[in-house]
Amino acid sequence: MKEQKSFIEVTFPIKEVSEESAREKNIRHGHISTLHIWWARRPLASSRATTYAALIPYPSTEKEAKEKAKFIVELSKWENSLKEDLIQKAREDILKTNGGKPLRVLDPFSGGGSIPLECLRLGLETHAVEYNPVAVLILKCTLEYPQRYGRQNKVKKDEGLFNFEKEESPLIADVRKWGEWVLEKAREEIGKFYPADEDGSVPAGYIWARTIPCQNPSCGAETPLMRQFWLARKENKMISLYPFVHEGRVEFAIVKKNGDEWQVVESSIPGFSPKVPFNFEPEKGTVSRAIAVCPVCGGMVDDKQVRRLFQEGKAGQRMVAVVLSRPQGKAYRLATKRDVEFYRKAEEYLEEKREKLWEEWGIDPVPDEEIDPNSLKPRTMWLYGMSRWGDLFNSRQKLALITFTEKVRLVYNKMIEEGYDKDYAKAVVSYLGLGVNRLAIYATTFGYWHNTRELVNPGMGRQALAMTWDYSEVNPFGGNADWESAISWIIYVLSHLTQIPPVETEE
Length: 507
Ligand SMILES: [Zn+2]
Fold this sequence. Notes:
Blueprint: H1 7-10, H2 14-23, H3 44-55, H4 62-76, H5 84-97, E1 104-107, H6 114-121, E2 125-128, H7 133-149, H8 170-190, E3 202-213, E4 222-225, E5 230-234, E6 237-246, E7 249-258, E8 261-267, E9 287-288, E10 291-293, E11 300-301, H9 303-311, E12 316-326, E13 329-334, H10 337-361, H11 379-383, H12 395-417, H13 422-442, E14 448-450, E15 455-457, E16 470-474, H14 483-497
Parallel strand pairs: 1-2
Antiparallel strand pairs: 3-4, 3-12, 3-16, 5-6, 6-7, 7-8, 9-10, 10-11, 12-13, 14-15
Helix pairs in contact: 2-3, 3-4, 3-6, 7-13, 8-12, 8-13, 8-14, 10-12, 12-13, 13-14
The structure holds zinc ion.
């Protein structure tokens, strides 16, 4: 007797499913990619389509096979990932091939969780295994907790995929509630280090330049290292920093392009407006490939010297500009003494806070583990004298991260006190922990200001750490990468995951 082949052994709509998989990269709201970064997470579209095609038999007629291929393409679409009738049909097809007995699947290398998630969606009893603890946490938050605690009672179909206003899952409600609690407690303690301007504008971020001393013995000026000077580079909004020299020091102005002319909006020297040449090119910074040019004397510092200065602890940093959130859009101003003062205060408070938590936790709250010098990519950090993971953050970022971490830990105790179940409290706190991680990928000295989108770009955009000369520091209480936005991205994902219908198992 001829053995029956599975659909995927005979054919598969590769082109169409590949297109759906590629398209998925642009989908953000609700997609598990926004829960936590994972290096090689498979697209959900191909994971779902291949799992299904591997489990159903190849039909007996060409016509049926064609229809099945069409069905697979529909099934792979993100828009259909919560479509009840379609998912139900796929589940029934799989169940039928196994004589009505639920199938059990084991993914021994689950990673970012795409394949087990799609197995779950297709109604399989899913077991996921990983030895990387980060992946295990991601898997628990993707597969286990939403299934165990998160089920929404019923979401009205015609109200869209992500509507979770009506009948919210208790898990989502608690992640939101305790996320807000964390925000309030953190704000009470460290909100004062990110003061609003007198007109009420809230800083969305601070733009910093790392600095080195010019190596020309007759100069020695502090050289701000900036890859480029643009702040906003949009068709109708062209704003840039403009460096100029005043009394042997590099100063800055904020300039705006009007037609062909540059107009000075603000200058760091009161009453002095530098003359900006019409051919000023903001994309040409003071550093390129680690070779720096001093704007004061024009002297060059080569890459070896630049790295040596960093290794010897002779590099510094200068806060250059502040980004403000205003109802009409982002606004920019130069950093003032007051801005630097608040940073210094945060720096002082960090020392106190760090000591206190060190005593309480028994470990340094700022990660003091060594960056593995043998690992290919992080090794770059060693070239700049950054040998510990804590070196990737400035003082105020460290303070923010350890404070949010502390508050998240407190949530657990508080929930137990209030009589919540231990395992459930652990689930809620796990999502808040992922929130801290979301904050951390933005709150490093490796995030930079994206001048066309006017947003802070996270530090690991290219899945590696590359030296960032001019970085942007986010305000965790305002801006595109604050705590609130971290938690809302997690809630979007939870809203999706909790709408996956329950899986029936044999027991
Ligand atoms: Zn110089």
